[in-house]
Amino acid sequence: AIAKVDATDSKELASKYNVKTFPTFVWFEEGRDYEFNGENTAGSIEEWVVSMTGPAVLRASAPVDPPTGARPTVVLYAHDLLPGFEQAAKESRKKAVWMFVSTPGSNDAAKLVLSHPREEEIVLRGPDCGRKEKVLELFKENVVPMFGPLDDDTWDIYMEAGTRHKKGLIWSLFADEDEDGVEAVQAKHRPMMLEVAKRVRGKYYVTYTDTELHKDTLENVVGTAKFPAIAVQTSSGHKWKYIYEGPLTVSRITAFVQDVESGIVSPRLRSESERAGDTRSRAPVTRAVSTTLERIAFTPNK
């Protein structure tokens, strides 16, 4: 059934389901609501409806191919499709590809495998594979890869995960000097950035971005259009970014992150560039930019 609600008239209902923009599409199933977060086009809405009406868990046969898209693959190997696993899949069906492979033996020997492209598998074994809360706990901790793409498709996922788990964000901004494309660029730097991700695990998500496609956005949002660079946000969504433009090695990048956490590094604030001749004595107005504000406007006692 499809229902339409005038949210400007039914304000209490709109508030209950956190409706802030129009149109908003919400799917209701088994007492739960799932909001559509794709593009407001007929194709995207149709694709979403089809995905919500189909099974949350796809049946497959071993071996399951590794994931190739942005979403992880979560596979349950057990004698039966466990209800807790299926319920977890229904609640997060848009964030991963959920699959079931029937195997001989007891369900107590079940195995759950969560995979991201080009990364080590994360495995859960035993009865916890059938416990919804355990499956969702593992999934939410690993919903994004150790080193993954930050783009229009994954932005909301990183923001939600960072807010939920109180983690920051590290942007890897590499220049595509050979014009081979972002996937070739990230593959070149993946070993280094995976090691960085291991060292900051639990505190930060480590990402890469297509600097050619998003150059203007990066200049506005991050505050730099000079690549290569590393940008650090101590919490997802925080306006302050700390920019490192020095030699790119594991030790240099992790040392920079530690300096950010220690307060040694100042954030890069978006503003105009400093000009020759900007001084405190110029009248009637003294011009200050992000790199000179503290020196020009601050005094020892205020």
From TrEMBL:
Alphabetized GO MF terms: protein disulfide isomerase activity
Any Pfam family the entry gives: Thioredoxin_6
A cellular component annotation (GO) from this entry: endoplasmic reticulum
Gene3D superfamilies: Glutaredoxin
Domain (Thioredoxin): residue spans on this chain: 2-49
Gene Ontology biological process terms from the UniProt entry: protein folding; response to endoplasmic reticulum stress
InterPro entries found in the cross-reference section: Thioredoxin-like_sf, Thioredoxin_domain
Entries under CDD domains matching the protein: PDI_a_family, PDI_b'_family
Protein family membership: Belongs to the protein disulfide isomerase family.
Protein name in UniProt: Thioredoxin domain-containing protein
Gene source species: Zooxanthella nutricula
